Structure formats: structure tokens, C-alpha cells
């Protein structure tokens, strides 16, 4: 029993000693480390203490004074802590803090990682099967100059994305709108991807409805059609009737789709990192940023709370204006993250409305003009617009007019960006290359250095080619504009890319609705109308009044301030006060650099002194082979190493 108690006491003492040593090591390095690393460092210091002291004190004479063992004890403690510090710094360099998951999280997520690994292997097999692996690995260096090569590769990419499933289909749809990044062959092939899926079983849909609504659908709705009106890869839509008798449609997210999309987005992010670091074209296109933007957009699309808010925002922006286009009204109390209940609009999708238009004697060009005017007003005036207006999301209503559906993808533009876009369109319409350059640089994300004179000449040639007399307008002008953007290293912000994606999507639908409809010409006419509306007498009077109200307080204080400046200048008291490092972050940064430099100087000084003392002969003897000067040198060497390690761990932690 006594032996057991002694073992327990020894274990507790060892643990406490290791804990104290670990705390001291962390304090010396000036960093906080995880529990596992601290305990490992403390145990390492404890176990190396005895061998280090024995090696230092070997041959120590018993005739020495009583203070000598004490100094060797301190030197042994410092050296053992130094060993632990070296190991912590190496661990920080090789395996930075936060790069490995917590053991509990690792065990908990092991199942998910296995599933992601299987999915990742399947995606790679699909890429290999369609001949894409050389481009993913960066082994192919050819510039794809031949149109036939681009067409073949674009077809392989489209088929591979289609086979990979929902997330990759949507990725292809988004890429098909980036005419500024991809050649026309890729845009054409990827634009053919369609989001389609077989309907989910009613039992699964009913379970989602019950979880989101808090009650079975039979208790919430008077009628509910089990057969969906439409089914896509993310959600499907059912017809229903509320207890009040109102006819509605219910959009239900497919069971388990969030987990599938989340797993696929992780694979998209991994592929993007691999392409950006391993291929030249991936780094040029900024595929990691594209992947991040795509992931954010699709995660928003999976949350029907966002779509509900989008519907309300678009409806509020167009309230009080007769646009000829209606939007369904959501029943917010019945809407959740995976269920959306909204007003039902009866009509025929625009993609299948040809016979109905002919039967009613409607003018397809007028319908196309109405739809284009609505989208342009959303973009240029309201700042909130439908970002996916394909023909399936637009209805020809039974009672007349048009209806827009599916607000899962909505773009937003702030006032500054809208004004810049308006100035860009106006400059293009006038053929002013200087104003066009200024407006374009406000719209795009410009690099640090750019040759504005050469950009202005390129835009001048672009305007002469597409906006001059006797020139035919078309979507090719957008392709040429995107090519200029790419050639000068400019980057289109995601919100502006959403504008061009919406216009490109709409153009395809309008071409089916009204063949020969010139989107660019109509857009120029609409932009001129918007500018004219802003320049009429009432609008100018209102704008002038708003600006004067903003400037009035400043104008009232201006004479007094001018008088003060003039008086100070007259009496020679005018001075300029400049505060350096007024920002707290600047002060902290400079203080950190000075701290780091001071530790480096002190560490180097202690190291030089240690080397000098270790090389000095003579002096009082402490042991048979160690003099007092050498003992002091060893201590200074430990101090130097501690200071240098502290600087190193600061550098590596900050770099990470």
C-alpha cells in the first residue's frame, strides 16, 4: 500500500513539475500554446533535467563551496527548459498551431473525411475519364491557340461537370457567364448545362416539411399536392392551398442536399488551391477567389431565409412603379431555412410560351422589351436585381403580364457602383474613350500599377469598332470588353460579374422569345431614358435640394473658419500639426518590431559574450574541467538561445 501511495505521489509530483516547467517555457517564449504541446514540452524538460545536470557536474570537487551545486542546478533547469523551447519552436515551424484539428474534432469528423475522400476520388476519376487530368496537374503547357482544341476541351469539361453532380453543374453555370475569363468556346459549352433531377420521395419531403413547419403538412395546409410541379437538383416545388383558401406554391429543399453541397464545396476549394499553385492559368485567373465567391453564393442559395429576404427586397424596390412584371409574395411565418411558401402565380414558362403568345396575339418583341427594361431598372436604379432570369424563371401570366420566380440568386449594387456603371454606359454611348477609361477603373478592381494611356487607346479602338457609324451591335462587344479587362490585369468584382451573368442569361431567353431582338441596342436606348429621367427638371430640383441640405451645415461654418485661418496667417501663428502613428494598430506594429529588434540585439550580445567567456582560459575552477568563466558563459549562452528562440517563434507565428 505504501509503495502504491509513493507511486501516486511521484506521479502527481512529476505532473505538477511538468506543468510548472511548461508554464515557464510558454512565458519565456511569450506565446500561448495548446495543452498537448505544453504538456509535451514540460515532460521533455523534466526528463532531460537529470542527464543535463550530471553532464555539467561530472567531476565536481567536494572541496568547492556550497554555492557551486546551486549554480549547476540553475544551469540544468535553464538548459532543460531550453531543450523544451527548441522543440516548441520546431513544432511551430513544422506543424503550426491550428493546422491540425483538435483530437475530439478529428475523431468526430473522421466519418465525414472518409466520405469526402471517396467523393474526391470519384471526381478525380471523372476528370481522368474525360481527359482533364493533365490540365489539373499543370502538365499541359499548350496555350490552347487552336479553336478545335478549345472546343474539344470545353466539351469534355462540360460533360465532366454534368457527371459530377449538382454543385459542379452550378459551378459550370456560373463559369459560363464569365466571358471576361473564359474563351467563347467554353462559355458556349458550359451554358448548355441544365439543373435537373428526379423528384425526391414524398416520405422524405414530408419529413423536411414537418421539421421546418413544426407540424405535418396536413395540419398546416388545406391541400398539398404530393406530385411536384418542378424538380431541380437543390429543391422541388409543390402546389398547395392554405387554410385560408389561398393558393400557394411550396419550395422544399431536397433531403440531405446541404451535406452533399458542403462536401463538394470542400472539394472545389481543394481543386482551386491545387490549380492556383500548380498551374499558370489557374494563378492568372485567380481560381481560388472564384471558388470562394461561388461557395458563398451557393451557401446563400441553400438558405431559404435569404431567398425570402431577396423577394421582399426586390418587391420593395419596385413598389409603386408599374413595370408590367409581378413577383410572388412570400408567407414569411411559414418560411424556414429549407421551406419557402409563397403566392402562386399562374402562367406558362417563357421557354414554352410560344404557342400561347401566338394564340393571344401578343408582340414577342414588346414582351422582351418589358423584361429587359425591368431587369435594367433593377440594376441601374434599384440596385437589387434578379441574377438568374433564364426563361424557366419567367412566366407569361394567365391574366396578362409577366412574372419572375426563384430569387435564390440576387445581385446587389451600391450607389457608387451603380453611378459608375451609368457613367460607363453613357461614355460608351458617346464614344468618349477618356470618360470610358475613368468609369471602367471605378467599376473594376484595378492592380497597383496600370498603363492608363495604353488602356485608353485600347478602349478608343474598342469604341471605334463597336460604337462607330455603320457598325452592328451585339454581344461580341462584351466579349471584346472582357478581353481588354483581362489583358490589363483588371478584375471584375463579383457583384458586377453578376450583372453580366444576368444579362447574358436574359439574352439567351430573349433570343428564344423574340428572334432578332437586339439586346445591346435596346439597352442603349433604355440607358438613355434613365439618364434623361435623372436630368429632367423635377429630378434635378430634387437632387439639388438634397445636396444643398447636405452642404448647408458646412457652408454655415465656412466663413468663420476662413476668418480664423486668415487671422492666424496675418499674425504669423498659422501652423501645421501632424500626428505620427495616430492609429493604435500602427503603434502596436512599430512597438512589436522594436521589441523584436531589441530581443535580437540582446540575444546576439549575450551570445557573443558567451563565446568570449567560453574561450577565455584561467579563472577559478568550478569542476575539474569547467572554470567560473566558462560557467558564466554557459549561462549567457542559454540566455542568448532563449532570446533568439523567442524572436523566432514571434516571426513564425506572425507569418502564419
TrEMBL record:
It comes from the Bacteria. Keywords: Membrane, Transmembrane, Transmembrane helix. Residues 192-437 form the ABC1 atypical kinase-like domain. The chain crosses the membrane at residues 12-30, 39-57, 69-91, 597-619, 631-652. InterPro entries: ABC1_dom, Kinase-like_dom_sf, UbiB_kinase. Belongs to the protein kinase superfamily. ADCK protein kinase family. This is ABC-1 domain-containing protein. It comes from Kutzneria albida DSM 43870.
